[in-house]
Design goal:
Elements: E1 3-8, H1 14-26, E2 29-34, H2 54-63, E3 68-70, H3 74-77, H4 89-92, H5 95-99, H6 103-118, E4 122-126, H7 130-142, E5 148-152, H8 172-193, H9 199-213, E6 219-226, E7 240-248, E8 251-258
Parallel strand pairs: 1-2, 1-4, 2-3, 4-5
Antiparallel strand pairs: 6-7, 7-8
The structure holds pantoate.
């Protein structure tokens, strides 16, 4: 029997629901895990205030056809004496890994535990967290896990803002500024469509747009990388993505875009 797992930290939005719907259509049983994993938060991050609404999540999971909603306690995942850490160092060094030391170790560790507990045929993740997806794919391949790792497209709000549970932190004014994150990426993609193939010039164009529309200290990184290796690209080739992170108010927002989609090659 084909089973699918959608690992989440809850506070479901349309992005989570699209992963569940896809999983529902591509497997006979749908498992959803909801676990706010303490090991992927740094000491000064938002573990204690991470948004949560268990009743709403339970209802939405049921309406989406979830067969099992797994909501473990930290001691279920990390029982007394737990000390194994899964690390994918090459892919975890840059981008979010540089700003959030230890984050991807926490992600790779919890996902490997969840995959071992559920033993699903498929596990489905959103492409908003592209670096996370690359880390998980590498981890699953290196550990010879039998689960197929599936990435699904970003779901966006009407103004382009990528859906994220952390969008709940944004005030209306911050939310409208946050749509510049998406617009900067679109501008990068348009430059590629117009024939630009130098990655540094694409990064510069996106950064310039952000500097004009956001404040400098809100910008964490803008980087053109290969979607599989997450290493900086020099020339725009198939698989090149622009990946960005900004901090607006209390929210750290990440986003990315495939640059070659629709480009004239
Ligand atoms: O993307 C998330 O929500 C989390 O990082 C994940 C994959 C559920 C692991 O805690």
């Amino acid at each position: 029997m084909r089973t699918a797992l959608v690992p989440t930290m809850g506070y479901f939005h349309a992005g989570h629901l699209s992963l569940m719907q896809w999983a529902r259509e591509n497997a006979e049983k749908l498992y959803v895990s909801l676990f706010i994993n303490p090991k992927q938060f740094g000491p000064s991050e938002d573990l204690d205030s991470y948004p949560s609404d268990i009743d709403r999540d339970t209802r939405l999971a049921r309406e989406t056809g979830c067969d099992v909603l797994f909501m473990p306690e930290p001691q279920d995942i990390y029982p007394e004496g737990h000390s194994t850490v899964v690390d994918v160092p090459e892919l975890s060094r840059h981008l979010c890994g540089a700003s959030r030391p230890g984050h991807f170790k926490g992600v790779a560790t919890v996902v490997s535990v969840l995959l071992n507990l559920a033993l699903p045929s498929l596990a489905v993740f959103g492409e908003k967290d592209r670096q996370q997806l690359a880390v998980i794919r590498r981890m699953a391949a290196d550990l010879h896990l039998p689960t197929e790792i599936v990435g699904r497209p970003i779901v966006r709000e009407p103004g382009g803002l990528a859906m994220s549970s952390r969008n709940a932190y944004l005030s209306p004014e911050e939310r409208s500024r946050a749509s510049h994150v998406y617009r900067g990426l679109v501008l990068g993609r348009e430059k590629v469509r117009a024939g630009e193939d130098d990655a540094a010039r694409i990064e510069e164009a996106i950064l310039k747009y952000y500097r004009e529309n956001l404040s400098r200290d809100e910008i964490d990184y803008v980087s053109v990388v290969d979607e599989k290796t997450m290493q900086p690209a020099e020339k725009i080739k198939p698989g090149a993505i622009a990946a960005v992170a900004v901090r607006i108010g209390k929210a750290r927002l990440i986003d990315n875009m495939t640059l070659t989609e629709g480009a004239v090659s």
